[in-house]
Task: inverse folding
């Protein structure tokens, strides 16, 4: 028990020490940009631009060399006064639209962008037809025998009330 | 009509399953690494870089009026070793100029590497920072660009070249482009 008290913090400290150098490696920080707006643009860009050599990571997450270079390039372009759109054009001119995490709306991406809406429409259509069907059936479509049974039951209730 | 519709109603999930299977099967055969370059058909980006011996500056204009290959390589690049004999052969057997873009490399390492593996390049431009690489949209070394007499990029290959690509795509395209007037 007493031993445990000392051992668990020790394990914690040792693991932190082991992990520290790895944390230190993650993406060396670039100097802050002169204006708040520029910093915001830069932060948005490195979240939305894809690191092309690492599957499914953006520039912010990746520590690959290309990602570091592209972060630097983005930083440089923004600090030169380029807008969000201008940097996006710069990148897509060189690397294609694949460099964007959010694919732009264009001929080859129509299906991609319209599918969710088409799916929604389909579901709405199915729900509406089902509701209509249900309201059309119900009491009106009772068969002859069913109607008789129902009337018998109702009559019996009336009879019951005499008791 | 209505009864027919009812009878096959249960088949819908199966039909959707089949359609999805076909779609996924087609996608399986595609190479996800193959990203079409927006640079094809466009003018090759300008550059001004020193050569490997630091003796002169090399720019895109120096190649004006010629059909040339720009091969992006580095001594740290493992796949470059694979394609290098093919480039050596190509430079021996064809009169096309091969320009090497030494990408993010140490010059001494690059020289040693060429001594070991042979030098197919007419010129070597040193891109130590990788800035020219970014302009050419380089992300997977080796990469090879075929540029025509007017300085337009006509073809791009990402990854190591193969015998088949050189014989069936690059050489025929070089022959075609060399016949064109600039």
Result:
């Amino acid at each position: 028990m007493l031993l445990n008290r000392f051992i668990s913090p020790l394990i914690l400290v040792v693991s932190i020490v082991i992990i520290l150098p790895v944390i230190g490696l993650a993406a060396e920080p670039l100097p802050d940009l002169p204006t708040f707006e520029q910093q915001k643009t830069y932060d948005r860009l490195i979240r939305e631009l894809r690191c092309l050599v690492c599957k499914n990571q953006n520039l912010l997450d990746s520590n690959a060399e290309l990602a570091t270079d592209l972060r630097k390039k983005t930083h440089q372009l923004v600090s030169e006064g380029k807008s969000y759109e201008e940097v996006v054009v710069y990148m897509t001119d060189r690397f294609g639209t694949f460099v964007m995490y959010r694919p732009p709306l264009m001929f080859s991406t129509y299906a991609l962008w319209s599918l969710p809406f088409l799916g929604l429409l389909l579901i709405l259509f199915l729900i509406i037809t089902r509701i209509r069907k249900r309201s059309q059936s119900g009491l009106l479509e009772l068969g002859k025998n069913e109607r008789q049974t129902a009337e018998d039951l109702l009559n019996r209730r009336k009879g019951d009330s005499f008791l | 009509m209505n009864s027919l519709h009812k009878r096959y109603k249960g088949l819908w999930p199966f039909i959707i399953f089949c359609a999805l299977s076909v779609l996924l099967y087609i996608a399986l055969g595609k190479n996800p690494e193959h990203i079409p370059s927006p640079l094809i058909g466009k003018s090759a980006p300008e550059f001004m870089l020193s050569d490997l011996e630091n003796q002169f500056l090399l720019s895109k204009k120096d190649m004006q009026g010629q059909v040339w290959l720009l091969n992006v390589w580095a001594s740290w690049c493992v796949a470059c070793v694979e394609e290098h004999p093919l480039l050596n052969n190509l430079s021996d057997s064809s009169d096309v100029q091969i320009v090497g873009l030494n990408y993010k490399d140490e010059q001494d390492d690059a020289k040693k590497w060429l001594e070991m593996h042979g030098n197919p390049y007419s010129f070597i431009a040193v891109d130590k920072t990788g800035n020219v690489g970014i302009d050419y949209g380089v992300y997977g070394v080796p990469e090879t660009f075929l540029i025509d007499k007017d300085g337009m990029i006509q073809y791009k290959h990402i990854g190591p070249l193969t015998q088949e690509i050189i014989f069936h795509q690059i050489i025929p395209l070089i022959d075609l482009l060399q016949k064109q007037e600039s």
Observations:
- Chain A touches chain B through 14 residues (CB under 8 Å).
- The first helix of chain A runs from residue 2 to 25.
- The mean pLDDT of chain A is 82.
- The radius of gyration of chain A is 33 Å.
